[in-house]
Amino acid sequence: MTANFPGVTVHFTRTTIQLGHEVAELIDLPGTYSLTASNPAESATRDFLIEQEISTVVNVIDASVLSRSLELTLQLLELGLPVVVCLNMMDESRRKGIHVDREKLAEALGVPVVETIAVEGVGVHELFQTVWRPSVRPVTSARSCRYQRDTESAIADLASWLQPNLAGEQCLPPRLLAIKLLEADEHVLGQANAATRERAAAAGQKLATERGCRVEEVIESERHALSMHLFESCAQVTHAATDLRDQLDLILTHRVWGYVFLVAIMVTFFGSVYGVGSLLEPPLLSVFEQSAAALSRQLGAGSLSLTLVSGLLQGVAGGLAIVLPYLFPFLIGMAILEDVGYLPRVAFLMDSLMHRIGLHGVAVVPAILGYGCSVPAVMATRILTSARDRFIAAVISTLVPCSARMTVIFGLVAFYVGPLWALLIYGLNTAVVAISGKLLSVILPESSPGLILEVPSYHVPKPQIILRKTWLRLKEFIVVAWPLLIAGSLLLSLAEHYHWDAAVNSGLAPFTAMLGLPQAVGTTLIFGVLRKELSMVMLMQALGTPQILTVMSVSQIVVFTLFVTFYIPCVATLAALVKEIGWKLTVAVAAYSLLVATAIGLAGRVLL
Amino acid sequence: MMLHQTAEGTAIKILEILGARHLRRSLSQMGIQIGDIVHVQRRVPYGGPVLIGHRGTQLALGRSLAARIRVAPVD
User: Fold this and answer.
1) B41 chain-A contacts, CB cut-off 8 A
2) Which of A114, A264, A377, A476 could be A370's S-S partner, Cβ–Cβ 3.0 to 4.6 Å?
3) Does pLDDT of A420 surpass 60?
4) What pLDDT, on the 0 to 100 scale, is given for residue A449?
5) Of B23, B31, B61, which has the smallest distance from its Cβ to A67's Cβ?
6) Mean pLDDT of A60-67
7) How buried is A256 (Cβ within 10 angstroms: 0-12 exposed, 13-18 middle, 19+ buried)?
8) Nearest 10 degrees: Cα torsion B19, B25, B26, B30
9) Is residue A166 over pLDDT 80?
10) Which position has the higher pLDDT, B75 or A223?
11) Is the CB of B24 less than 8 angstroms away from the CB of A361?
12) Residues of B in contact with A451 (CB under 8 A)
């Protein structure tokens, strides 16, 4: 899945494709600016390129930022693998006034270059055909891709020493290894032995002295000069067509209006989700209520078969009538915001605020994703460079209410108590997140390197892509969460039938009593750790009626929702956290969230 | 002057990047090096970031980084 948002691909997507009679595996790697990685996502890409068996590397370039993109291309050419350059976003580059001469570029680089507008499918077939051609050979750098003589001699000198001494120590070709050593790539240096490092230092010393600066600066400026040279000789820059998008940015990044529109857009988003959801929830709920009543008459109250069927029905109803009405508009809204490219502007506007809570603007990415689902949000923390930043961002993105918790807030509070209350809960949550972030950044002091974020052009989202993206995420709910919901409902039904739940509830009684909640709520809170929607769906089941207001007071509903919003992340999130920050820190996060939830629940009970 | 002190809408040349080479490397990976001429597109006050443009790339730089980049205006 892609989006107009740096940091979206943080894991590999593998697809099998067929061209003619042959079948191949296509692997989409996280984007990287260089083979010298600065965050875990880029490291993953680098490792894959170096260690895995690859038949062809397809370098997808944003043609509208060609000069910068070529810096990676130049490094990829050194891998010694067949490379095909895909000049993508040709429409965008033409709009910016950048006209690339494809043939000249292909000749200069020494590899095939294919033009595409991937999002419209233009050139994609030709790309795959080019990749498949047996004439695509491993690259031996074309003569135009050489640096200046003094740099080349230093590289050649080191490379020729490395050649016999490699002995499988590194998987890099000698020339690339030499370049990376001279460039002071930390990963490569870390893997090299003392003799190699010494030799690299010696080779670099001469170059550094001659140029009067550090050797890695020489390499970087050489590569930069070469990219610029290639760009200037292969592309013509004419006047950019200023269109609505540039004027849009003038407003949306404006020091005053930018924030006004940010609030407006968020409120619109929030309002639409609520509007659609609350329209659909009542009629769907009543359908299920009637079916439940009819079933009861048919199968006889108290019978096991009724228990099983009604459990099933509750689970289905929960997904259809309560979750989907809110989830669907939410996912569409998120997809639109992502694809339009607005989210980096949000990071830009929120940067100084994020600094006050100890992070910088890029941490907005996981935080925003967290409003959708905590699992990809936690994974997105890989785009941050320091472990400390990743930890704080992981905590923040799990504290933020995910779409599952969103359905609880909307389906429960907004619906039964009022939309203003739902808004207040979101506001409170934002405050808690800010305070937690600040707390953590004070406890873990370390200067954040600061925001460096590429802000892409605005892009008119294509409806088919929005729908497909929404469907993919919806499918995840339908395939993973809904069955869990149904299973959970069934389990609760059985537990009620055999009165196991009474045991659990009485066990948790002191806790629920402290929060002023009815005892029956106990089991639903346990199930809520499995999947957040369960806590709401099964609440109705546990209380015995979807007419919650008859059994719980308004303040109890709010306290319950507050607790559910903040307490322990769901199992899937816990698993993702363990993977990113480790066991101990995950337990700490869970404990912290439980503490916060209890404190807020108590405060709610007292104040409301 | 430093980047965070520049005015919106001006073209500036990057003269020096102070401090640890981490920033220099990140900028260089984004295609911006010493000697490049960039366009200051936006500046958010109260410690906010700077938005610069360079050959089609738009880059948001946090204030602490912008304060470490020495620049000079270009006509």
Assistant:
1) 249, 253
2) A377
3) yes
4) 63
5) B31
6) 87
7) exposed
8) 130
9) no
10) A223
11) no
12) 49, 60-62, 65
Cβ–Cβ of B63/A98 closer than 8 Å? no
Q: What's the CA gap between A446 and B42, in Å, rounded?
A: 28
Rounded CA-CA distance A487/B51 in Å is: 50
> pLDDT at residue A315 above 80?
no
User: In which band, very low, low, confident or very high, does the pLDDT at A301 lie, cut at 50, 70 and 90?
Assistant: low
Residue in the block written with tokens 């920050």: A581
Residues A154, A158, A159: CA angle, nearest 5 degrees: 110
- The percent of chain B in helix, strand and coil, each rounded to the nearest 5, is 20, 40, 40
- Report CB contact under 8 Å: A348, B44: yes
pLDDT single digits (tens) A372-385:
778 878 877 877 77
Q: Is residue A3 part of a domain?
A: no
A590 and A548 co-located in one domain:
yes
In chain A, whose CA is at the least distance from the CA of B45?
Answer: A255
Task: Tell me: do A197 and A79 sit in the same domain.
Answer: no
pLDDT recorded at residue A597: 92
Let me know if residue A251 belongs to a domain: no
Distance from CA of B73 to the nearest CA of A (A): 22
Asked if the structure places residue A413 within a domain, the reply is yes
Predicted model pTM: 0.74
Q: Return the pLDDT at A142.
A: 59
Q: Of A334 and A19, which is predicted with more confidence?
A: A334
Q: What is the CATH number of the domain that holds B49?
A: 2.30.30.90
Q: Which of A65, A361, A457 sits opposite B62 (nearest CB)?
A: A361
Total of domains in chain B: 1
Q: 3-class DSSP state for residue A213? A: coil
Q: Quick check: A352 and B25 CB within 8 A?
A: no
User: Mean pLDDT, chain A, as a whole number?
Assistant: 82
Query: Which chain B positions have a beta carbon within 8 Å of A349's beta carbon?
Result: 44, 48
Tell if the CB–CB gap between A220 and B33 is shorter than 8 Å: yes
Cβ atoms within 10 Å, residue A197: 14
Closest-CA residue of A relative to B59 is: A454
In this complex, do A352 and B65 lie within 8 Å of one another by their Cβ atoms? no
The domain that holds A41 is classified in CATH as 3.40.50.300
Average pLDDT over residues A562-572: 88
Distance from CA of A112 to the nearest CA of B (A): 23
Boundary-marking domain end, from A92, A108, A143: A143
Q: Is residue A248 part of a domain?
A: no
CA atoms within 13 A on the CB side of A43: 11
The structure tokens listed for A406 are 């969103």
Residue range of the domain that includes A74:
13-143
Dig out the tokens for A599 from the structure.
């404190």
| Chosen from B23, B44, B46, B59 to mutate, greatest number of chain A CBs within 10 A | B44
Give the Cα-Cα-Cα angle A316, A321, A322 (nearest 5 degrees).
100
Overall number of domains in chain A? 3
Of the candidates A217, A254, A361, the beta carbon closest to that of B49 is on: A361
Do A65 and B25 lie within an 8 Å CB cutoff? no
Residues A69 and A102 in one domain: yes
pLDDT at A512 over 70: yes
Which of B24, B44, B58 comes nearest A255 by C-beta?
A: B44
Quick: pLDDT tens for A317-330: 777 777 788 778 88
* A22-34 per-position pLDDT tens digit: 788 888 888 788 8
> What span, in angstroms and rounded, lies between the C-alpha atoms of A545 and A539?
9
What confidence tier does B38 reach under pLDDT thresholds 50, 70, 90? very high
Q: How confident is the model over A192-196, as a mean pLDDT?
A: 84
